[in-house]
Structures are given as structure tokens and as C-alpha cells.
Design a protein that fits this description.
The complex is a heterodimer of chains A (about 450) and B (about 200). By secondary structure, chain A is of the alpha/beta class. Chain A contains 14 helices and 17 strands. Chain A has an eight-stranded mixed β-sheet with strand order 7-6-8-9-10-15-16-17, with helices on both faces. Chain A has a five-stranded parallel β-sheet with strand order 2-1-3-4-5, sandwiched between helices. In chain A, a hairpin with a 4-residue loop joins strand 11 and strand 12. In chain A, helix 4 runs parallel beside helix 5, helix 6 packs across helix 7 and helix 12 packs across helix 13. The longest helix of chain A has 20 residues. Chain B has about 200 residues and is mainly alpha-helical. Chain B has a two-stranded antiparallel ribbon. Chain B is globular, with a radius of gyration of 20 Å. Chain B starts with a helix and ends in a 10-residue tail after the last helix. The chains are: A alpha/beta (about 450), B mainly alpha (about 200).
């Protein structure tokens, strides 16, 4: 009689033996002993190989809330992807890793947009210290035609949001767009809702200044995800603060396919008659550097002077390296350097030694602190897991205290956050002004005060 | 072939296991699966995400072994158990109307349910992984599938006793001229490790 059971036993044992320990690790025999908060940071584009998020993660180890999690949760720093494909691979690895409690990152809007749907599958809370594009927060088919950003919040056909995404940094639209517009108007010496250089008694009408708008639409690193909503907004002449009517030429360039010579030739042609050559650049430093290098190289043959150029750049270009070309530079940024220096004084020395502009350190640090507070509360309830952390972030969105500031996050978006303007102060980019609610720039820090 | 010994054995030990009660058993298993899905949904997770991830992982070969094993168990093993139970004199004499062999619809329904249950096994693995660990006095999955718990129940048996015997059975069987019953008896009564080299 026993032999009759043999085939059945074979199957039963095959069944019981077939557990896939790699894909479905048994917690008891897993290498993991604690949960992890994965902090993504990037050194790409920084000649000093400085990584703001990694620095914040290092400093956060000494925070009391983080220390209280010892033995339960660890902070793990990871190198960020520089391409969308790599970001998707990284996100899949995180999703398949059951000991990841939450993610801080990614560094770019494009990579964050690519990774978020994958994190959502596993309900992993994502705190975003640097991704600013409005596209990041919405679900839509990224392989199809992308919606116009103004359609995203259309009440009749709203695009759903990722419920696991929380942005500490204000969205580009409207915050950064308003900051760029205000900075450009200031640079052009325009007042809000006013034509340039009003000369009512003059017989000849005032000449309208011409600016050029350059948009980085590199697909490899997802720059287009970041820049397109900003550029589309800047081109829309919808408010009295708009600069659309002054944009003489709008060009989109992909770093991987751009003909830099042709790009600069076009700038020369457009700006030929302008005494002050204003260029609004929306994109990443890689393209900005290429453009500035070529402009500098060709300034002599065409009797051009780099000092006659004024660049108003988006926050991703907050880098001292771009000052070496001699052009006047304004960078709009949501990063409050003076506040970060106050709450994390250890960074002053690093800032000095590495010649970097403090940027995402405060937000990344606060993201870790907020997650640590959430994890501590979940631990006291014996529910330390992703679901509990997600619930904490959603329930306490109106007041999420970090170390550097408190955050009001509604629907995943940061509310009521100011924007700042950085300018060249003694060879370094320094925070000089704050963009007010009336689209005015208030000079709160003089170059002398902010320069060392 | 119909009157051959292999066909007779198949009838006796497998085809006779396709009874109405087998479909009832399938339904019970599917109910357990449905309960798992409900609990997963209550936890704030999307079942569709687990399905998508399970398909993605199956394409990469992850979880394919256990899925195939469950399918084999349901298609081959379960009817065998039922056929065995049905042939027990106590059952046969006491409830003669129970375990009546069926064909056609019952077979098709069982096969369909088997595929569903096997697919759900792969999905249940994805559900557990997607829910992630919780760390409350030690790591454990934030969501634990009841069905997957049943599937993995037999794991300790494999490691401790039976697997060497089964391995020997398959290694020795092709070389033996003795009847199947004799080989099986001999193998089961042997010391498991020593005889492996003999084979």
C-alpha cells in the first residue's frame, strides 16, 4: 500500500520544497535584521563629487529621533540613478526588498517620476527633498502622450495622485515659475503689470526688451519632466507678471543631440541688438555648462563680452562652477541656505572646504527626521511597517516638524513655501532675495552680509 | 492502451479521483484565496499591483517553481489522494454515493480552478513581498497569506526525512526489473543516506 502514496509524496515534497528564497525571503533566515530607510543622493554634475543627500543622511545619524530607532531602523545611503532606465531598475530592487521601510529621493524629477509607480505598488512612502516637477505627483501613462501640465488638476477629469508621495520642496508650478518671472522682470527693470521703460512724454515708443528662453529637454535623465511644465508656464501670457511677451525666441535642446555651435549662433542672432542679453535657462547644469563654454569660446571672434550676458537659471543650476564663465547669474531656488546653516551648523565648514552651495541638505535631513518620528510612533504602537508610516504622514500632513522647519503637506504637495534668488557675490552664489506673494523680490541678504 | 496496465493504474490511482467533492475542495481553497485578497485590500494595498508584479516575476522565472508545483499537485496529486480515499473500504461501504468518478465538466472545472489556485500562489508571494516586513520584536511580513502558509507547511518534512527516499525512488526505478511495489517497499525500508551511492 505505501507505494501507492509515492507519486503523491513526490508532488507534495516538490511543492513543499519549492520556496523561492531570493524573491520571497523568509524573515527569520533573512540577512536583514532591521528595516531600512533608503536615502538616494547623486554626485552627478558636481565636480567635487559632493552629495547633499548623503551628507544629510550622515548628519541625521546623530539626531535623537533617528537614534531612538537603533536596532529597528537603519539609514542606508544609495547612489542615485543618472538615467530613467537605471532609476526604474533601482526602484524595482527597492520594491522587491521587503525590509525597506521608506525612501528619501530621488534627486531628479525625471527619475522620481519613473520610480514612483513602482514604489506605489509596494506602498512604500516616498519623501521627496529635491524633485520639483508637477508631473511627478500624478499618475498617467508615461509611454503615451503626456498631458499638458494645466490638465493635471482639471476638476472635470483629474489625474489621480500617488498616495505614497510627499514633497517637502515646493512644486515648480507655480512657485518656481513665479520666482523666474519675478527675477527676470527685476533684471529687465520692469515693474509688475507695466510695460518696459515707460516714457509717456517720449515721441518714440519704448523698445521692448528681448529675452531668449532655453529649455533643457534631455530625455536620458528625464530633464524634460522637470523643464517642460516650467517652460510651458513661462510661455503662457496669462497674468500681469508674465514674461511671455518679452520672449523673442524659445528653444528646446537635448544634451545628447544638441548642436552647440548652432545654439550659440542663434543666441548671437537673437541678442545682436540687445545691450543687455538676457537668457532664461531652465534645465540641468550639464547643458548650461556646454552653453556657457561655447559662448565664452566664441565671445572674442564676435567681439562679444560675457559680462553683457545675464542668465536667469532654474534651481537645478545652483552651482558655483557656472560662475567661472563671467556672465551675470541669477538662480531661483527653494533652498534657504541661511536657515540650513542655522539648523545644521556642521555644514558651514563643508560648504567652505568644498566650495559648494548648500541646497537639499535641509530638506533631506528633515525628510529623514520626519520618517524617524513616524517610525517611532509606529514602534510604540507595535505597528512598525510601511502602512503605519504612510498613515502617519497622511494624518499629520498639516504639521510635519523636521529639524530645520515644519512642513504643511496637503495632497502630497508642500504648501506655503517661499522661493529665493541667488546671485553672484564675490565669486560665489549667495542667497540675496526672497520672492514675495506680490511677485516682488525682497532683498533680505546683501552680498556683503552673505559673502564670507 | 486502454486495457494496458498503465491505463489501469492511471484509472485506479488518478482518474477515479475526479469527483464532485474535488471541486468542492477547490472552492474551499479559492475561498481562502479570496479571503487573502480581501485582507490585502484592507491593508491598503492594490491587488492589481500584486498581479502585475507576480506576472513580471514569473517572466523572470521567480516563483515559477512553486507555481508549477502547486499546479501539478492540484492536477495530479489531489485526484490521487481522493482516489486513494475513495478506495478505502470504510469510506466505500459507509457512503457508497460519495466519491463517484466523474468526467467532462468536473475535470474541466477542476483544471480551471487548479490554474486559478496556482496563479494565486504566485500572486500571494508578490502580495507578501509588496507588503514588506514589519519590525515588532523581530522581522515578519506585514501581510501573511493564509494560502501561502498552507503551501509552505510541508517544508520541514522535505528537509528531515522523506526527500532522500523519493530521490532514491526516482534514481533506482529505471534500473530495476522488479515490480514497482517491490522497489517502493525496498526503498522505504532502507536507510536513506547509505543507499544513495548504490543507486
Amino acid at each position: 500500500m505505501p507505494y501507492r502514496l509515492s507519486p503523491f509524496l513526490v508532488l507534495l515534497l516538490c511543492l513543499s520544497a519549492c520556496s523561492d528564497s531570493h524573491w520571497h525571503p523568509d524573515p527569520a533566515s533573512s540577512d536583514a535584521k532591521t528595516l531600512k530607510i533608503a536615502v538616494f543622493g547623486s554626485t552627478a554634475g558636481d565636480e567635487q563629487s559632493y552629495n547633499a543627500s548623503a551628507q544629510a543622511a550622515k548628519l541625521a545619524q546623530d539626531n535623537d529621533d533617528v537614534k531612538a530607532l537603533q536596532g529597528y531602523v537603519t539609514i542606508e545611503q544609495r547612489e542615485d540613478a543618472e538615467s530613467l532606465a537605471q532609476a526604474v531598475d533601482d526602484a524595482r530592487r527597492i520594491r522587491d526588498d521587503p525590509d525597506v521601510l521608506a525612501v528619501v529621493g530621488h534627486s531628479y524629477s525625471g527619475t522620481t517620476r519613473a520610480a514612483l509607480p513602482i514604489y506605489e505598488q509596494a506602498g512604500i512612502p516616498v519623501m521627496m527633498p529635491t524633485a520639483t516637477s508637477p508631473y511627478v505627483m500624478y499618475k498617467f501613462d508615461e509611454h503615451g502622450a503626456w498631458p499638458n501640465f494645466s490638465e493635471l488638476e482639471n476638476r472635470e477629469a483629474p489625474y489621480p495622485r500617488f498616495r505614497n508621495a510627499f514633497r517637502l520642496i515646493p512644486s515648480d508650478v507655480p512657485s518656481q515659475v513665479e520666482a523666474i518671472e519675478a527675477t527676470t522682470r527685476k533684471s529687465l527693470k520692469l515693474k509688475p503689470e507695466e510695460e518696459p521703460n515707460p516714457q509717456p512724454d517720449s515721441a518714440e515708443p519704448a523698445k521692448r526688451p528681448r529675452i531668449m528662453l532655453v529649455c533643457d529637454v534631455t530625455k536620458r535623465n528625464g530633464a524634460n519632466v522637470y523643464t517642460q511644465p516650467i517652460c510651458q508656464s513661462l510661455l503662457r501670457d496669462s497674468t500681469g507678471h508674465s514674461i511671455a511677451k518679452y520672449i523673442a525666441r524659445y528653444r528646446e535642446y537635448d544634451v545628447d543631440t544638441v548642436d552647440v555651435w548652432a545654439m550659440v549662433t542663434e543666441i548671437h542672432a537673437v541678442m545682436r541688438s540687445e545691450t543687455s542679453k538676457q537668457i532664461v535657462f531652465v534645465g540641468y547644469p550639464e547643458l548650461a555648462r556646454m552653453l556657457l563654454e561655447e559662448l565664452t569660446e566664441r565671445s572674442n571672434p564676435v567681439s562679444d563680452n560675457m559680462k553683457s550676458y545675464t542668465f536667469i537659471m532654474s534651481e537645478a543650476c545652483l552651482s558655483n562652477e557656472l560662475l567661472q564663465f563671467g556672465a551675470t547669474l541669477y538662480v531661483t531656488s527653494p533652498f534657504n541656505r541661511s536657515r540650513v546653516e542655522q539648523c545644521l551648523p556642521q555644514l558651514k565648514q563643508i560648504e567652505h572646504d568644498k566650495n559648494v552651495v548648500l541646497s537639499a541638505e535641509g530638506y533631506a535631513y528633515d525628510a529623514i527626521v520626519i520618517l524617524a518620528k513616524a517610525a517611532n510612533q509606529c514602534k510604540t504602537k507595535n505597528q512598525l511597517g510601511r502602512e503605519c508610516v504612510l498613515d502617519y504622514l497622511q494624518l499629520n500632513g498639516d504639521n510635519l516638524p523636521g529639524k530645520c522647519e515644519s512642513y504643511w503637506i496637503g495632497n502630497g504637495e508642500r504648501k506655503a513655501a517661499p522661493y529665493y534668488v541667488y546671485a553672484n557675490c564675490g565669486g560665489e552664489l549667495k542667497q540675496t532675495g526672497e520672492v514675495g506673494t506680490e511677485h516682488e523680490i525682497y532683498e533680505k541678504w546683501s552680498c556683503q552680509q552673505s559673502a564670507r | 492502451m486502454k486495457s494496458g496496465p498503465a491505463s489501469k493504474a492511471l484509472d485506479k490511482y488518478w482518474r477515479h479521483g475526479f469527483v464532485l467533492e474535488l471541486v468542492v475542495l477547490d472552492c474551499v481553497v479559492l475561498l481562502i484565496c479570496a479571503f487573502d485578497v480581501f485582507r490585502f485590500w484592507l491593508g491598503g494595498h492594490a491587488f492589481s499591483a500584486a498581479v502585475g508584479v507576480a506576472v513580471e516575476k514569473l517572466r523572470e522565472g521567480q516563483g515559477a517553481a512553486v507555481t508549477a508545483a502547486v499546479l501539478l499537485f492540484f492536477v495530479v496529486g489531489l485526484p490521487m489522494i481522493v482516489a486513494l480515499i475513495a478506495s478505502l473500504p470504510a469510506i466505500h461501504e459507509r457512503w457508497p454515493k460519495l466519491f463517484l468518478p466523474r468526467s467532462g465538466e468536473v475535470v474541466a472545472t477542476h483544471l480551471l480552478f487548479s490554474i486559478l489556485v496556482a496563479s494565486f500562489t504566485a500572486i500571494a508571494i508578490a502580495m507578501e513581498v509588496l507588503a514588506g516586513y514589519e519590525n515588532n520584536e523581530g522581522l515578519k511580513y506585514g501581510f501573511r497569506s493564509s494560502w501561502l502558509g498552507i503551501v509552505f507547511l510541508g517544508q520541514p518534512l522535505w528537509a528531515s526525512y522523506i526527500s532522500p527516499i523519493i530521490r532514491k525512488f526516482f534514481i533506482r526505478l529505471p534500473h530495476e526489473k522488479e515490480p514497482l511495489s517491490k522497489v517502493a517497499k525496498e526503498i522505504i525500508t532502507e536507510e536513506p543516506l547509505e543507499s544513495q551511492h548504490v543507486a
